[in-house]
Specification:
243 residues, alpha/beta, Rossmann fold, six-stranded mixed beta sheet, four-stranded antiparallel beta sheet, 24% strand, binds adenosine-5'-triphosphate
Length: 243
């Protein structure tokens, strides 16, 4: 039966990400993902793991509506993404928090401005920006770096700025694609600690990662992809070494 968004709107643990029989083929031949069915509920912390080319980034791109499924439906935040009009896509994306492996900060703006930028684009009044940016920088342990340029920061600090920027508008969902891919173990754990903290405050967190050590130790829900197929979905799972 098709997913009924209206039924779930007022539920506390409503599914905020739903894949319904989703396949994506970039070209003819083997699809990048095949027939994925998946529900992630509000407040969950989920890892998506799998070897290179297994379809993880394809899933993130579908959630961001950067690509369209060949078959099936993706729902995020109670929206059927196939029904989102072209003019609504940018606004939709800004409603999600997103972080990537390579931080993607504005190189010529300082830490404060990088975070404030996320609020300026949605026309947040200045008095709110002046209150909320220092607050989120403080949560990320970056208060004394607010005037630094990204080039003056360590990799871990840059990723914390990216997290601050992703979170300053209080998204319901945070999508993180390899957030520790460029970090050493100490900084990787610091980012994970912050993601856990954010999740405890109510944000749904989805993390794509290759970091088996982190996945094994954190004991969260783990969705494992293999060659475009969802091969396991475990609560308190580990990193399957079979792939
Ligand atoms: N734009 C594209 N055009 C054609 N094929 C693509 C495109 N993007 C991805 N693919 C193919 O789709 C499959 C899944 O790729 P995807 O990037 O989702 O994997 P992944 O699990 O994220 O890999 P990695 O861990 O290396 O980032 C791969 O076979 C890849 O070659």
């Amino acid at each position: 039966m098709a997913y009924d968004m209206n039924k779930h709107l007022n539920e506390i643990n409503a599914p905020v990400i739903v894949f319904e029989n989703v396949s994506k083929a970039y070209q003819k031949g083997t699809p990048a993902i095949s027939n994925i069915n998946l529900q992630i509920r509000k407040g969950e912390f989920v890892f998506i793991v799998g070897s290179s080319g297994s379809g993880k980034s394809t899933m993130i791109k579908l959630m961001l509506k950067e690509i369209e499924p060949t078959n099936g439906k993706v729902y995020v935040n109670y929206k059927d993404l196939s029904r989102l009009r072209r003019g609504q896509v940018a606004k939709y994306r800004r409603s999600l928090g997103v972080v990537f492996q390579n931080f993607r900060l504005l190189k010529d703006r300082n830490v404060y401005e990088n975070v404030a930028f996320a609020q300026r684009v949605i026309e947040t009044p200045n008095r709110i920006i002046r209150r909320q940016v220092p607050a989120i920088l403080s949560v990320m342990g970056l208060s004394d770096k607010h005037k630094s340029l990204p080039s003056e920061l360590s990799g871990g600090e840059q990723q914390r700025v990216a997290l601050a920027r992703a979170l300053v508008n209080n998204p319901i969902i945070l999508l993180a694609d390899e957030p520790t891919g460029n970090l050493d173990p100490k900084n990787s754990w610091e980012i994970m600690r912050l993601l856990e903290e954010i999740n405890k405050r109510g944000t749904t967190v989805v993390v794509v990662t290759h970091n088996s050590d982190i996945v094994d130790k954190m004991q969260k829900r783990v969705i494992t992809m293999n060659k475009g197929i969802l091969i396991s979905d475990e609560q308190k799972g580990g990193y399957t070494r079979a792939h």
